[in-house]
Write a structure and sequence with these properties.
single chain; alpha/beta; YbaK protein; 5 helices
Amino acid sequence: MGKTNAVRLLESRGIDFELTEYEVDENNLSAVSIAKKAGLNIDNVFKTLVLRSDSGEIFVCAIPGAYELNLKKAAKEAGYKKVALIHVKEILQLTGYIRGGCSPVGMKKNYPVYIDETCMMHDSIFVSAGKRGLQIKIAPEDLVEVVSAEVVDLV
């Protein structure tokens, strides 16, 4: 298992985390499927979404895997009038990660990150480790610190 940018960044900062592997289903990359395959509670699995504002700014949201992002809340929290998810074809170019393996940690650029407030209800949460088939288990406080995230209501 090669190290991803996310893993290297966490190690370089001395942040405690664990890695969990799971079998990848190329036909279903949803967080719900990942939670089932990895034997994880879906409430603890957060998916990473990349958005663009009406003025062209890129930012990132991490939300519980079983929920949908409320675009109006995301726009308000990020200070924009309107936002939309980026096109799947743009993920690699903008983040350095692929669909189904996009981590909020270690992206090509330090985009603003917003994490849903429900993360604080858990001792640890899971986010992508930067490639399909690998999740990072991390304390939400550590994730917030390492990506300089704002904890807000997004769902």
